[in-house]
Fold this protein.
Amino acid sequence: MAKARGNGKEIVIAVRDLVVGFDDHIVLDHVDLDVYRGEILGFVGGSGAGKTVLMRAIIGLLPRREGTIRVFGVDLTRASDAERHAIEQRWGVLFQQGALFSSLTVRENLQFPIREYLELSQRLLDELAVAKLEMVGLDASVLEKFPAELSGGMTKRVALARALALDPEIVFLDEPTSGLDPVGAGDFDELIATLQRTLGLTVFMVTHDLDSLHTVCDRIAVLADHKVIATGTMDTMLASEHPWLKAYFRGKRSRVGHPAEKTART
Amino acid sequence: MSETLLEGTAKGGRLRLAAAGAWIAKNARSLETQIDAATQGRGTINEVRIDMARVERLDTFGAWLLERLVRAFSARGCATKVEGLKADYRSLVDDVHVVKLEEPPVRRANQLANALASIGHSMVSVGGSFGAFVNLLGALSVVIIRTVAQPRRLRFTSLVHQLDNVGWRGVPIILLITFLVGCIIAQQGIFHFSKFGADIYVVDMVGILVLRELGVLIVCIMVAGRSGSAYTAELGSMKMREEIDALQTMGFDPIEVLILPRILALIVGVPILTFLGSMAALYGGGLVCWLYGGIEPAIFIERLKEAISLDHFEVGMIKAPFMALVIGVVACVEGMNVKGSAESLGLQTTASVVESIFLVIVLDGLFAIFFASIGM
């Protein structure tokens, strides 16, 4: 496997000249983006700018018009089915609404991917389901519940546990904290950061949550005008004079104006 | 078995387990067997050392299996120690260390009790659906009375839209199917009647059968499958996405907004479809009589005039709106019963179609008794 290197860090996702559109409407126009191993990349942009579109294009749910997408050095646009399959086992996806299978219990949801790819004993499967649940801050009491019986925060946690079921190297999170209260969102950020540290994950996080960007993201990429207009740390974003970045990071809802809040969360 | 991931050497009461290789998901299966093998037998051991220094990779699967190993020995009262763990993996191992396996105990009732319980549950659910049926019928009557008093409340656009779906778009398939059924009964009739020279009575049979029973039945079964299921699925998915709750909170009555137009569309549409279907079946029957039985169209029509009276036609047509009502109410009741899951949507849609076809046939039987007793 060819490993591209940039800044001394291994690039796990490399998007080059990606064009994605629907009918005559171009959403992503020659987008370039690198994601390094072991980082949490926050991906931001206005509503409807195409953040989710880029994520879906990378994981292969949307067809691209031009460009290449390399994950772990494998060009997904040219990969054979077997190669694709192997890559798919190395990433996990948390969809915006959780996308838990509504007719399966939490236990079955968590075991579904494991059962599919590994032939493990039922005992180990059951133990792992509990272990994964505890890692995302839930416990065995929700195992037999159906997704419809879970609260929004629990759904997100179970969905994260399912995304992590096969111990992937990359996790894609689509607005993980949307719909959670600030405390819940803060906990979730914390959880993602902890899991990232313990499991050595690479996290690709589409988000709108400025708090998440401040607290957990190592690097931020900004999508605007159909392109990635900036990548860098929070400080770079705050220093930028680009009008959109200024409005986003230094607008009314940013915390720059209210530095006291920065320490409010424990 | 692939590579050796765990090797044990016992010396007196001390056991030294040397771990190696990749303790990851891919190897979890063989690792589990090796770990279980390591914990079995072994006589009396009071000290276990697990050397993890040669483990190249570790993920949650490996970490959990290590934890299981440690717990198994700890449970036997051995002093267990994990050594040489890479610093990167420390936090992961600590994470799984706190996992509590206390699951709620699964109660296994005996088979007979289960069987009886499931019969009981299904009886209760039958009672429940009957209750819901009557309930919706009542609520619908209230809404109808209210709508008659204030005709402006009727959702006319919605009614037309549903009529288009249920009636107009259903015409081709219903014409085709009733036409074919007409052809088939005519062919069968001619084939068997000709054995005793009674060919011409095929016309009586086709005419009476189609107008009284078959036209309306076939149409209703088609409508239950085509539109009843669609109603259930529509209302069910609206229920799942809380759209119905949203309507309610805005002060709309879901029965007035969603259910009344749908059921009215059926009540208007099904008689029309029944009429068209009966005509198509008669046409099919006539065509087969001519081509297969040699009965000229003119003779067929002449005979048909003698064989059937307006009564037969009326019997069929009177039944149609009642059957439409049953189909509509069952479909809407089942739709409103959908719970959160995709599976429940499927179950309720199936139940809707099965129940409405069943009820249509039962109702047809009741009508047969009724019309016989009033001499129609």
About this structure: Chain B has two domains: 6-97, 151-373. Chain B has twelve helices and four strands. The mean pLDDT of chain B is 87.
